[in-house]
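Good morning,

Attaching, inline, the backbone tokens for the sequence recovery test we're adding to the shared suite. The designed sequence is right after.
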């Protein structure tokens, strides 16, 4: 397993693999890797000859008041995890390697990015689309792997690949959770012990909502109300949104009459956490 920090080094390695006729999987991450990331790496390793993991806290996808400075970082830990799961290359660039002076090109998207997290994080998806496009161009993978944990991001990437005729396959992987249900996230490290306990309202609300859908409730308002009431009963929790949207367009729907995504974002203290379920998975 190799760690490189420049675009040129990635290109050289990828070129060598291509000449050998090998297939390449890409797992884009912001590092501080956990079992959620590991599940993406495992999937890539099982489906490709070589797996590249990018490990880059992308400044462009953070708003001015967000946690760019405090976002956890630990390259030695990440390297051990990637190696243990059979990854072949970590791309760990400095921000200046990705955004040279005078950088002024962006990949932007309307509609899908104007709902859910896009409302409270207005610059987020522009940063995501731009960095993911750059990573696709640098690595030129056959397949790229994303978690359903970031369901809107997955929908946005699929849409971008389709809109812009990008020549690769996108795979969405299931949410990996802690034993008590909390979706694994690098941001869980921000939580105090009391907040960590309070954060269980997210996965509890997801279970509540998915049970209702499984049992046949199709009225979105009823599902949203039950989930919101459950979260509101936790004093440390503050709801950003609880919504049900069309799984492809991310636009709110009144009735679950097509593949839908139920997504929530909740502040636990100062930490903003997300969770979700796809109605097709219940
Ligand atoms: P991040 O490092 O948070 O940007 O995440 C990198 C990739 O890992 C994204 O595609 C995430 O959706 C995915 N991911 C993060 N947490 C989880 C999880 N708990 N289960 C599955 N995938 C995850």
């Amino acid at each position: 397993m190799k760690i490189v920090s420049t675009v040129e080094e990635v290109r050289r390695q990828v070129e060598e693999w291509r000449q050998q006729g090998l297939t390449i999987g890409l797992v884009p991450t912001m590092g501080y890797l956990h079992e959620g990331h590991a599940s993406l790496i495992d999937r890539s390793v099982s489906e490709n000859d070589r797996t590249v993991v990018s490990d880059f806290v992308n400044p462009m996808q953070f708003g001015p008041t967000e946690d760019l400075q405090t976002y956890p970082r630990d390259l030695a830990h990440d390297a051990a995890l990637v190696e243990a799961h059979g990854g072949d290359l970590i791309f760990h660039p400095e921000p200046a390697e990705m955004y040279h002076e005078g950088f002024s090109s962006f990949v932007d998207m309307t509609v899908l990015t104007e709902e859910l997290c896009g409302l409270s994080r207005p610059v987020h998806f522009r940063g995501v689309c731009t960095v993911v496009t750059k990573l696709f161009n640098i690595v030129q993978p056959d397949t790229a792997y994303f978690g359903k944990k970031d369901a809107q991001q997955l929908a946005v990437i699929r849409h971008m690949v389709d809109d812009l005729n990008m020549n690769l396959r996108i795979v969405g992987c299931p949410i990996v959770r802690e034993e008590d249900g909390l979706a694994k996230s690098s941001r869980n490290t921000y939580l105090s012990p009391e907040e960590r306990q309070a954060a269980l309202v997210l996965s509890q609300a997801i279970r509540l909502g998915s049970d209702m859908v499984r049992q046949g409730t199709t009225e979105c308002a009823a599902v949203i109300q039950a989930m919101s009431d459950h979260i509101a009963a936790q004093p440390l929790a503050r709801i950003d949104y609880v919504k049900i949207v069309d799984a492809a367009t991310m636009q709110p729907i009144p009735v679950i009459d097509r593949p839908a995504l139920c997504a929530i974002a909740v502040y636990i203290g100062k930490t903003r956490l997300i969770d979700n379920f796809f109605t097709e998975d219940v």
